[in-house]
TrEMBL record:
Residues 21-123, 165-272, 291-382 form the Cytochrome c domain. The keyword Magnesium does not apply. Residues 1-19 form the signal peptide. This is C-type cytochrome. PANTHER family: BLL4482 PROTEIN (PTHR35008:SF4), BLL4482 PROTEIN-RELATED (PTHR35008). It comes from Microbulbifer elongatus. Pfam families: Cytochrom_C, Cytochrome_CBB3.
Amino acid sequence: MSRLILVVLCILCVDIAAAQTPIDKGRYLATAADCVACHTAVNGRPMTGGRPFHTPFGKLYSTNITPDKKTGIGNYTLEDFTASMRRGMGMHGNLYPAMPYTSYYRISDEDIAALYAYFMQLPAVEYVAPENDLIFPANLRFGLKAWNWVFFDRQPLQQEAGKSPDWQRGNYLVNALGHCGECHTPRNFAYALKRDTPLAGNVLEGWDAVDIRPQALRRQGWDRASLRTLFRTGVSEQGAAFGEMFSVVKHSLRHLSDSDLDAMITYLLDDDETANETLAQTIGDPQGAAEQYPQGRADYVAYCAGCHGREGTGITLAFAPPMHRNAGVRGENPYNTIAVVLRGLPVQRMSRTNARAGMPSFAKELNNARIAGVVNFMRTAWGASGTAVTEDQIANIREDLREHGFLGEHQ
Ligand code: HEC
Ligand code: HEC
Ligand code: HEC
């Protein structure tokens, strides 16, 4: 009897895949793995490469992965393609781990073959990415052999016992195809992922790719419904996707099938139930916060309330996210709340007809003490956070952002 149920379940699982040609399947997998985000330059043709990556060792460019024989991957056999996806072995030597083979090595043989079939039938485009600009010795590709030897331990995907097929599928989507850990897992001095703290959060390009382990997500008030809304639309009652996360939603997550998105959420929340659909209640102490941080409250009303609502409840979600349930405001680490106030957020375009309004930068209007006041007011009013941020903390983040060019005029 239980075997019968299992068979029926499996038929349901492969149903979508079975209805597709290998090329359709490859296209879907390329979306789930978000190849286009990295292999497309601003205003460039899709998959032709040329997008710069700023690493601690200099600037690196993604390459052309259309099947052009001269400048792309037209001469790759399935074995060559597999070597670059699994082992970071390109045709011209070792690849830098900005190409996330450190996650993709977990992709199944079958899925790699479907990806290969898809890429090989794309229109071939002749294009050569700019030369890399890396410092010695990072500019020597053979050094990467040693890097791989020391840092690239290819542990197979943990197939934890007792978890549902949905959870296992989510594990594969998050840790293989979706390569979420490439941004969300802390890195060591040599830029390698710290295997003992997967998905524990990491600052990159001046944003905190936050802790997305189950306890952190739940504590911040994420539930199945709000994560689904975030991943489908880029914004939810708990907050909006910004920085690199916006691109992940735009190019990848919002295009996933309902069942894959649900599986991913089951894994992220470590939650095999679907019943839990209510948004977490407001927490914190608005009255106490106003008494403790009167200047912070006054600045919130003067500078922020026009868009985020006087009581933090927002005006309309389509315009700006509310603050009284904001995951960042509730989070242990105040980095993104501070960085958003300093940097502001650019207008983001999800599609031709759907854009998200931006937010101005307050780096000039508000000094470090006043920003600390606003942030402390919000975290006490709506975050129930015990730890106050200090003026020094704001000063350090401001300096770091300025040094890396994130407080420029473009904001
Ligand atoms: C996070 C960014 C990122 C993502 C996502 C990404 N790539 Fe890459 N990829 C790169 C970079 C950067 C390079 C160039 C590395 C180098 O030159 O050492 C590269 C190189 C490659 C190469 C080697 C090409 C050559 O010239 O030899 C192949 C093949 C490739 N990627 C395929 C893919 C496929 C297929 C996907 C999606 C399944 C993908 N990449 C997703 C960043 C990325
Ligand atoms: C002109 C309208 C406007 C003003 C004024 C404004 N914001 Fe925003 N804010 C936005 C919008 C719009 C977004 C979401 C942008 C997006 O979706 O990419 C946002 C996002 C945020 C976020 C990130 C929310 C998340 O999704 O996690 C924080 C934190 C924030 N604002 C705090 C503030 C604070 C503090 C102030 C006052 C110092 C302020 N905002 C003033 C419009 C505004
Ligand atoms: C290219 C880097 C990058 C990748 C890849 C990435 N993220 Fe993120 N993610 C970020 C950054 C930066 C933030 C913080 C900004 C924000 O909150 O939107 C973030 C925030 C989040 C948040 C919190 C959103 C919020 O509003 O508080 C969730 C949940 C999340 N990511 C899930 C994922 C999942 C699941 C994947 C893999 C499918 C993934 N991320 C892949 C960079 C990334």
